[in-house]
Specification:
Four Helix Bundle (Hemerythrin (Met), subunit A), 2 strands
């Protein structure tokens, strides 16, 4: 019998291959995302000519790179997502697009809020703070922080660090990231979309995720929920 037979692919091998593929796809995702933003703005020249567009593009590219580096690809376990990741993607994308549309098409004729560089600076800092919070949450969960909601029989309930008082700090970070992008454009439409589309999408994701975690950890998770908040310590 030949000694160089193919070895069965392990979960670690699958995760490694998916990680490499996701890293390779980063430039393509950035190109597609910015092309759509530029199209909504009225063309690349118009989009990148404006300071807000340049700041948004720089921070948004960093966000996509950070997400792909620290986020574990979907593999193993049982999927419990129920399409929640698609809802988050669609609602957050719509929020960005509305902010861009308001800035490039409405502001020249009717400036609801006067834009200046302070908006861009504050927005960038808020998004960067959200990225930092999200990365720390990802690192705390390790390979169990996946794109879609997935459960693993061997996973443990993390209750230390960021998770000592808040159950979903990564989603808090995501809200800050989106809020920062909206602030870069000083967009009222973006803020409304954040409140009435992005936030409900995240709350739906939290509901699905908590139901899945209760199914794994039972009373331990219920007790954890009783002494923690979902997104903001001491508030909610």
């Amino acid at each position: 019998m030949a000694e160089n037979q193919d070895k069965p692919k392990t979960l670690a091998d699958e995760l490694k291959q998916l990680k490499v593929f996701r890293l390779i796809m980063i430039p393509i995702r950035i190109l597609v995302a910015l092309s759509v933003m530029a199209l909504v703005a009225g063309g690349p020249r118009r989009f990148f000519y404006e300071p807000a567009g340049l700041v948004f593009a720089g921070v948004f590219c960093l966000y996509l790179v950070v997400e792909r580096i620290f986020q574990t690809p979907d593999a193993g376990g049982q999927e419990k997502d129920q399409g929640s990741i698609k809802v988050i993607w669609l609602t957050s994308s719509a929020t960005y697009l509305l902010a861009v549309a308001e800035y490039y098409w409405l502001r020249p004729h009717w400036e609801i809020v006067e834009w200046n560089w302070i908006w861009a600076l504050v927005g960038a800092l808020v998004s960067l703070a959200g990225m930092l919070l999200r990365v720390q949450a990802m690192r705390a969960l390790g390979r169990y922080f996946t794109i879609s909601v997935r459960t693993h029989s061997e996973q443990k309930l993390i209750q230390e660090g960021l998770y000592a008082r808040v159950r979903h700090p990564a989603y808090t970070g995501l809200l800050l990231i989106v809020a920062g992008f909206v602030t870069v454009f000083a967009s009222l439409a973006g803020y409304l979309a954040l409140m009435f589309m992005t936030l409900p999408g995240l709350l739906n994701r939290i509901r699905i995720e908590e139901r899945a975690l209760t199914g794994i950890f039972g009373d331990e998770y219920r007790e954890y929920c009783s002494r923690t908040k979902r997104l903001v310590p001491f508030v909610y």
